[in-house]
């Protein structure tokens, strides 16, 4: 646009000059002793313009020749920057693709060659990211140190460095170190939204419910975090704050919450728990009802069913209104059944619970039915549903009552003796030269300590004890399967009889 403008200006001046020269004819006299030059005015103007153009061209050529070295250096720098940018782009693409070994090679070469501060910082951070994913923490720290040294004179680059390092620290759950880097960057502005998100993650790792709650709200106000991601964070942090505040701080903390935050299931459960601990069962019920009016959550229904006796009638009436809009909700039916059990309404309770387990057979419904039938004295049915509840949990299998135990393994048992041969067994007939069948030396004694037949000897004192029967002799002398008698320490020695 500018070129066209100046072209029109020059053409206008030329036309105007031509008109003026045509209307004012005259001569130009140039006297330079001993010369005397006389020209027409038109020719003199044309010669003047031509001289200006020639002089301008000569000056431009001289400037071009004298500025050659500087222009060459600029061209070389531009080419180097282009090459660095291409290699930096390649390195970042390799990092994003997960090819960390190749990225490390490219970025290491770039970091050792580039002269640009920005490129040096970015290459150092990219190299640190690649080493971080590879688990090379020592090399990562070296790259971060090089990037920090390059960014020492630029405040913007220092902030970039701090944000990148804090993100790596959070991956290692080094929340305190990350927070020290991010805290100076947090000013609540939209430009620092990423730093605020990282600071939120650090407070989450440290379990700081108050800071998590406030930062999540800030990010929601600036649309810097998705609502689906923010609401669970608010619910968790708000419920932790309510439980930690207890009855003393409940009113202040509850007043800070918005109406949409009060009906979140986790928040409602925590608030109801605090109110129940304070003895305010009516307030706890209202809190749960407000949340259940929005969503019939199973956790809320379970808490709502744990009602004191004086609240049962009111809660049953309220739950039946919800049942009209959602008649096939198994959790709601189980809660109604539990409320009927608390109010000793056995018939309605049985109907609600039977319908609940028919829709969804879970351990809660089966256990409630077992308790109901146990309270009514119907033991067989109670055992049936308790057995089903244990099967649902996966802790115990639901065994059939007619099942039998597997047969015992008798392969290692001693050989039995026939009953007719028991009379032929004479325990005293064994001589001193016979080798005892038992492997234990505690049952072996020689003739020096022998006692009359039909009596036994105390193993430690050698005193006679109770008479020995044929069955005692048999089982006392039975060999132990798998034991070599010849290898035992109680084998007779030297001159003893074997």
What does this protein look like?
This protein has 498 residues and is an all-alpha fold. Among the domains are: 20-66; 78-229, Alpha Horseshoe (Serine Threonine Protein Phosphatase 5, Tetratricopeptide repeat); 230-295; 318-396, Serine Threonine Protein Phosphatase 5, Tetratricopeptide repeat (Alpha Horseshoe), CATH 1.25.40. Helices cover 64% and strands 2% of the residues. It contains 21 helices and two strands. It has helices at residues 2-23, 41-66, 68-97, 100-113, 117-134, 137-150, 155-171, 175-182, 193-206, 209-221, 227-256, 259-262, 265-277, 281-294, 298-305, 312-325, 330-342, 346-359, 363-375, 379-393, 470-476; strands spanning 27-32, 35-40. Strands 1-2 form a two-stranded antiparallel sheet. It is elongated, with a radius of gyration of 50 Å. Residues 421-466, 471-476 and 488-498 have low confidence and may be disordered.
